[in-house]
Design brief:
The chain has four helices and 20 strands. By secondary structure, the protein is mainly beta. The longest helix is centred in the N-terminal third of the chain and has 11 residues. The radius of gyration is 25 Å and the shape is elongated.
Amino acid sequence: MIKRILSVACVGLASQSVFADDWRIFTRAESFSYSEANPVTAFIDFLIGPAPDDGELAFSRNVIESGVGFKNVEFSIIHRNDYNLYFSQGAAQFAYLNKNRQNIPLGQRYDVDVWANQYQMTGGKFGFTLPFGKTVDVHVAYSHLYASEAVSGYLGKDPNGEGGYISMIERQDGGRTVKALDGDLHTDYFFTDDPLFRNRVDAPTGQGYAVDIGFTWQISERMKLKVMGYDVAGEIRWKDMHHIVADATSENFVTDESGVVSVVPNFSGTQTREDFTQDLTERTSIDLTYRRNQLVFGYSHDRMSRSEFNRVSAGYLWGDDAKWGFHLAADVGTAAVEMRLGMPVGDLFFIIDDPDVDHAHTLGFGWNLNYRF
């Protein structure tokens, strides 16, 4: 139907062909998770799995969008779910022992310092590309977002720098020597679903925005540079969000029949509802590619959630206009391998750092597909 209308309006198959090439339907997705201490699958499964290595962060960045584009303008529906967690090694070790029902050594002090920022949101995205001269294109996108889920806050020392630990000790109880938990933890966090005390609440809806900006520079016939900043400006504004400021001591720690430690709902603190502005985690990426005939070489740098990833890649192109291609990249820091398949309609990719998925600390996949009409 669209082509028939264009044919009448433009009068001629040539005009119709040019106009039709400017329209496209697209879908893009990226899921990238990285965990320093625990494998990604254990991180997702609440630390059930192998013992943690050294490390102090874990994050997962997930986005999917679908939309329509015309020439240099795009409109899409976007859904995002980002999770950022920073923690002390003591917190990771204790959480692992507790979740996997392992014996917690007597007298071992575990220093706890945890910061989390998670959000899930859906909205509309408008983007456009502006050419500057013959070699530079500037990319700008604005997303208006509605958030349905979030946790943002801290667990560890109190504002005076005291406490922030947990340990297993022996104490006397009615003439018996029993094992008990000793600790002093302070927490201050906003939430839609209480992760610590498990209080059931009615969750508000947040409203916010995100701005992406970057550029592509065709340095030469063979070399191209693309730089993008995601969430360079952005936030979620929550109205009447649930907020807990509390202290948990030995009296709040309980152990169930299976040996798992938890915190009882009775705590010393306050639970209120307050307006809250949640920051989004900024990401920057740099991609440099060099093409010579059917060979492509590249370097990419990604910075997200206090982590940096550097990959070198090589690829081979074939088919009409070299629209098919296979690219292999290696991360110099994590030893993760990325495999990317290029097709006439876009590309697919997969990233992993261990052939055994259950032991992978880096895991990612996604696609960028376009259909022109």
